[in-house]
Write a structure and sequence with these properties.
globular, 40% helix, single chain, Rossmann fold
């Protein structure tokens, strides 16, 4: 039997669960915690194989197994905030474990991360090159990916430095975990399921994001017409790093209304 995932919890009140993206860990959320924990119980959790849960290995690294393990580990109903790959996991929780979730907030995420006809996203050859690079030099691959997440930001050097400082607090995940989780980005497609989400749903984006292009936002709005979206004008793939105060303001305003 797989043990429960470890997580950190700070503050009291309405529970917010933050799920990180590919290649990073829960430390990425640390800049938000001091302010948010004044009003909320803020939980940050590492995906299996990452951060403080690096020792937990799943026999099948699937989104369903990850989602199931997260909600069982947290054990209470909460608002889920998922960034990038974490947005896919949070979306899966909303669709399949709705008894554990009050509202869904995705950050710089997409129901499908791979470019297809009439669907702007990451080009398949880029994801393929990440697999090839992982096989040769995982550490360099992660560093390159972290740079991509800040590219386009007006404070790109500062953002990259902060992201690296936060993420490097934990040891790197294994090459297998990185590869398995990258496959989730390549193979997951929730486009036809979004209209089944009936709980409050907020989508947050960065205008300068090269991984989740702005031109695709309206397509997601068509798939989920009851959801709300907001675009941070001076952010790329990590708006909570580029514009933390504006991010907190938008999040708190929306939560207070829902």
């Amino acid at each position: 039997m797989i043990e429960k995932l470890q997580f950190t919890s700070q503050g009291q009140g309405q529970t917010l669960v933050f799920i990180h993206g590919w290649g990073v860990n829960s430390a990425i959320w640390q800049p938000l915690i001091p302010e948010l924990s004044k009003k909320y119980q803020v939980i940050t959790i590492d995906l299996p194989g990452f951060g403080m849960n690096q020792h937990i290995q799943l026999s099948e690294y699937s989104i369903d197994n990850i989602a199931k393990l997260i909600v069982k580990s947290i054990g209470i109903t909460a608002d889920y905030i998922g960034w990038s790959l974490g947005g896919l996991v949070a979306t899966h929780i909303a669709l399949n474990y709705s008894e554990y979730i009050n509202s869904l907030i995705t950050v710089a995420s997409s129901p499908c991360f791979v470019e297809q006809a009439h669907w702007p996203a990451i080009k398949p050859e880029i994801l393929k090159s990440f697999h090839q690079q992982l096989a040769q030099n995982p550490e360099q691959t992660i560093k390159g990916f972290l740079k991509i997440q800040a590219m386009g930001s007006p404070n790109v050097r500062q953002d990259i430095k902060q992201i690296n400082t936060l993420v490097m607090q934990y040891d790197m995940p294994s090459k297998q975990t990185l590869s398995d989780s990258l496959v989730l980005l390549e193979t997951s497609d929730y486009r036809q399921s979004l209209n089944q989400i009936t709980l409050p749903f907020l989508r947050l984006y960065g205008r300068l994001d090269g991984l989740v292009p702005k031109r695709g936002i309206h397509l997601v709005s068509e798939l989920s017409p009851d959801s709300t979206s907001y675009v941070f004008q001076r952010s790329s793939h990590a708006p909570f790093i580029s514009e933390p105060n504006a991010f907190i303001e938008q999040l708190e305003m929306w939560l207070s209304q829902h």
